[in-house]
Amino acid sequence: MDGQQKPTVFIHEDDEALLDALCDSLEMLGYPVVGTSGMLQPNRLRFRGMPGIFIMDLMLMNEPSGIELTRTLKERGMKCPVIAITASPMMAEQARESGLFADVLNKPDGVLALHLVSAIDKALAPQEG
């Protein structure tokens, strides 16, 4: 991705401290970032050229799971890759089995932002074959 404009990363994470850390880390690496910790309303989102990739927390307070939100967003036409982040091994397994996610990463992880960059690059790489 060097030399090109990096895609916008949309992050939905209900832990505001982690959201801030992820946004700051990705911005320092040159990614434009939009972050939200509030209740996500899929019927109110419009994606026209944005985001390039979506990072979704799977265990959200006071709203459906990140798996259900991702399913709804994709049913409503969101085409960008989605990377799941979770602290729950059970949710991670469900996310992998759902087939909705380009990757599933564990948190807390002291190098989560670096793993995200690798996962973002992999998810956005041109598909071979």
Walk me through what this model shows.
Helix content is 36%, strand content 17%. The protein has 129 residues and is an alpha/beta fold. The protein has a single domain (9-35, 50-123), classed as Response regulator (Rossmann fold), CATH 3.40.50.2300. Strands 2-1-3-4-5 form a five-stranded parallel beta sheet, sandwiched between helices. Strand 4, helix 3 and strand 5 (103-106) form a beta-alpha-beta unit. Helix 1 (16-28) crosses helix 4 (112-124). It is globular and about 35 Å long. The mean pLDDT is 82.
Brief account:
The protein has 129 residues and is of the alpha/beta class. The protein contains four helices and five strands; from the N terminus they run βαββαβαβα. It has one domain (9-35, 50-123): 3-Layer(aba) Sandwich (Rossmann fold), CATH 3.40.50.2300.
